[in-house]
Amino acid sequence: MKTLRRVALTILTLVFSASLLADFLAPASFATQFRESPNASPSVQFPLGTDELGRDRLSRLLYGSRISLLLAPAAALLATLTAALIGGTAGYWGNWWDRMAVIITDLFLSLPWLFLLLTVRATLPLNVPPLISVVITFSLLGILGWATAARVVRAQARSLRTADFVLQARAIGYRRSRVFFVQVLPNLKPVLTAQFWVLVPTFILAEANLGLLGLGVAEPLPSWGNLLRELENFSAVKANPLLLAPLFLLVVVVGCLQVILSEEERFQ
Amino acid sequence: MVFQRLARHFVTIFVTLLIGGLLGATLVRLAPGFGADERELDLRLNEQSIRMLRQARSEEQNVFRFYLQHLSGLYRGDLGFSRSANRPIVELLEDRLPVTVRSASAGLLLGWFLGLALALPTAMMSSTAYDVATTALSGLVLCLPAAVLALLFLFLEGPEALAIGLVVFPKLFRYVRSLLEDAKAQLHILTAKAKGLGVFRVGLWHVLAPAMPQVLSLAGVSVNLALGAAIPIEVVCDSPGIGQLAWQAALARDLPLLVNLTLLVTLFTMIANLCSDLMITASGAEQA
Amino acid sequence: MKRLLLFLIIVTQLFPALAYAESERELRFCLRAEPKTFNPVLVADEPSETIRYLTGGVLLRMNRLTQKLEPELAASWRVTDNGRQILFKLREGVVFSDGTPFAADDVAFTIRTLMDPQLNSPTGDAFRSGGGSVDAQVIGAHGISIRFSTPVAGLERLFDQVAILSSRSVRKEMAVLGPFVVSEHKPGSHVLLRRNPQYWKRDAQGQRLPYLDSVRLEIQQNRDTEMLRFLRGQFHVINNMDPALFDRLRTESPVSARDAGPSLESEQMWFNQVAVSPIANYKKTWFRSKNFRRAVSEAINRDDLCRLVFLGRANAAAGPVSPANKFWFNAALKPHTFDQASSLRRLQSEGFRLQQGRLLDAQGHAVEFSVITNAGNKTRERMATMIQQDLKKLGIQLNIVTLDFPSLIERISRTFNYEACLLGLVNVDLDPMGK
């Protein structure tokens, strides 16, 4: 439904704009510690309250949106495109490349890539700006996170290999590469959008989990991932349900992405 | 012919395992902190003891030599010794593998059940309200960190398999739904509806059935998702499975244990993917 | 310094105070990790140490409350030859848990085992700290002399960590002299200790100890889960709690929460002054300057750290010795006062200057350095964040780098590729120089 897509687009635009305009909208800097007001309840001064170090939660949510909303979708896009290329060509072309791609995909699914992330981080200077470090982390997630979707894309591409329109295109004399990019790839869109939709929150949460190994966003930079990790403290959530704000925002953004990326007919 | 194909699959699995083990060992060996032992910070140890601690891992310095020795040990049935757990690896796997297999299997079944149960109605009907509700539900579960889910079930004294199932289900649901949506958009569905075929018949035989190969391809992937989810969930729930072992091994840079776990995960992944490929081929042959 | 609950080590003394729902008297608490060994001479990790404490029989025991030595398997002892020799008279009629009699030969066997250079045992290394050999000589069935090559200060304290092994038992290190014996070990799940029916100690009424029938040690890493299970009555004791969890416990179950005072642990930040470290030379110059280090110390608001990070359950410290260390703590030493004006003066005396809010050294380098700490430790991450803000007011840019533990160990003990480090220190030995 066009209305629903418009609403979703509006919400996403608002969220993105708010994150970009955080410098003007945020009540305080994300790093400023109001040490006399730790764990403060929501108030006029602190709309979402403060954290254990007295930092304004709304400010951290707004600034954290920049990192998560820009980098996670970029990494998800990279992973999705890689899955499209590798899975799609493997399924469509078949033969030795298909067998090779299956092996590479299974290896990518099984190897402990965590150690690669640790190694890359160790090669960076200690005083590298936190933003660069997190950009590198998300880039690596994007480079490494394609394998799951590639399998599904491959199966889909294999079924398209014998589709009528593909056979007709080949019969006309189109080269295989043209058939792939013009006929096959657009028909992989449903599974690719599913992949993208799944990967955005997955990478946001992965960044938070990687923080346990020092690979996440460095303090004092906030991210939705490290804000979401606060949910592990149930008693704090019970005392201040507004701690659920990052979760709520993430669900809304992911839902809006789902609506916008899906085929128009599905919501009719 | 069948025998030849099976033999080819077997060779592929074997070669992939060899490559996977070596690559895994290399990644661990090159990672920072390899060889560093927490005990080096113990002020009570003298320099000779610290030197001996460092030399204890000297046979792991050359990754190729280590890997060849490890493979020859595997051939004899010796999986090596875990320095971090201070036990033979075969004992560790005997104790912990059943725990993870049980919880991951139960989690997978639940994930598939939920994913299919929520996605199948999409094949049969078009409802904005239903789509929005399932999107919101799966989105909510997808956005919850696995550790939070695990803590929730711990708090509610529920089995950790449920947490694994909830981690897996939104991803399966999303893929299956998009595949079914795509299948539903085919022209023959319109024809079937126009001819007056019932909702269930159209949904099951004309939407789901053609999409089955792609749905089956998820089977292998879902095994990997479940194993991946097992790690944070077992760590939070303190469940003595392979996931918790993998995390501890990673923190300790326990090379022999990590190589064995990599081989195990590669084997599970390949077998699961092979099974789904064979099912796809079988279903494709039937349709032909 | 953190003020944490003291480990309720003297478990036997708590037994009468505890009520049990089960017919068998069982005490249940947690180990935070899998014990690596049950061999008392190889113990190097805390869970194994706990089991050694509960199962091992020692010649002398350090009373953790009074911090004085008390006789255990040794009825009496005497230090002679200016700290080079210690003579023990052993209790008679004591047997190991499998019935094997305890004699001086067993002590000699234990000392010889400890002195094996291949052992890598912290306990053994403590005996070798003076260099040279350690000789154990049996004097009759119940007397033993242990001689060191060089004088050792406080040498009797070493024996608190030495659980005596049997030289004759076929059960080897599983035959013990302590109040409990390892009965069951399910890896990843629990360790069950049952009372040692041969335990030699009796109470004032002559009743054989321990009162408990068993101690069940559940292996539980997650502290939130531990707390949850404690509130459900599945555990009887939690030690060493996170301040936030302790406050939560005080709210939900005020009777259960007891602050046992300061522990021996401290949190420290230090600068890398290793000459061969790969850091920039101008930074080495900063870190070697006493005024620079003192200025940074004075710029850190320790009271805020205690209040916000430890919720008031910590004290600012002048050094690594805790007030809980009765013998070595010097109350006359005061921690550096928080005074950023004084910090700036010190820095200016070293040629540093403030320029547009950034601190520059005499050569014009902006003062920027990193502090490494272990990832996943929320307390340290918060401390580092607060220190970062404190130093920012002086124009110092502090970058927080969290690393997983092996990477951190590698940097501080091998490559020396770090600038500053924030880490904790646990004093196992009361003697600050006990190494």
Order of helices and strands of chain C: HEHEEEEHHEEEEEHHEHHHHEEEHEHE
Rounded to an integer in angstroms, the radius of gyration calculated over CA atoms of chain C is 25 Å
Mind summarizing the main beta sheet of chain C?
4 strands, mixed
Q: Largest interface here, residues on each chain?
A: A-B, 59 and 61 residues
Helix content of chain B: over 70%
Tell me, rounded to a whole number, the average pLDDT of chain B. 85
What is the strand tally of chain C?
Answer: 16
The sequence of SSEs of chain B as H and E is HHHEEHHHHHHHH
Percentage of residues assigned to helices of chain C = 25-40%
Main beta-sheet strand count, sense and barrel state of chain B:
2 strands, antiparallel
Strands of chain B, count: 2
Number of domains of chain C: 3
CATH level 4 superfamily of the largest domain in chain C: Dipeptide-binding Protein, Domain 3
Spatial strand sequence of the major β-sheet of chain B: 1-2
Taking Cα atoms only, what radius of gyration of chain B do you get, to the nearest Å?
24 Å
Q: Give the percentage of residues in beta strands of chain C.
A: 15-25%
> What is the CATH topology assignment of the largest domain in chain C?
Dipeptide-binding Protein, domain 3
Q: What is the second-level CATH architecture of the largest domain in chain C? A: Roll
Q: Identify the strand order in the major beta sheet of chain C.
A: 1-10-9-8
Low-confidence stretches of chain B: none
Structural overview:
The complex is a heterotrimer of chains A (268), B (288) and C (435). Chain A has 13 helices and no strands. The longest helix of chain A is centred in the first third of the chain and has 37 residues, at 57-93. In chain A, 70% of the residues lie in helices and 0% in strands. Chain A is an all-alpha fold and 268 residues long. Chain A has a single domain (3-30, 42-267), classed as Orthogonal Bundle (MetI-like fold). The termini of chain A are close together. Chain A is elongated. With 288 residues, chain B is mostly helical. Chain B has helices spanning 2-30, 47-55, 63-75, 89-124, 128-143, 146-155, 160-184, 187-194, 199-237, 242-252, 255-287, and strands at residues 81-82, 87-88. Chain B has a two-stranded antiparallel ribbon. In chain C, a hairpin with a 4-residue loop joins β4 (74-80) and β5 (85-90). Chain C folds into three domains: 5-40 and 45-55 and 178-256, D-Maltodextrin-Binding Protein, domain 2; 57-173, Dipeptide-binding Protein, domain 1, CATH 3.90.76; 266-434, Dipeptide-binding Protein, domain 3, CATH 3.10.105.10. Chain C has twelve helices and 16 strands. By secondary structure, chain C is an alpha+beta fold. Chain C has a four-stranded mixed beta sheet, covered by helices on one side. A four-stranded antiparallel beta sheet of chain C has the order 4-5-7-6, with helices on one face. In chain C, strands 11-16-14-15 form a four-stranded mixed beta sheet. The two termini of chain C are 21 Å apart. The interface between A and B is large, with 59 and 61 residues.
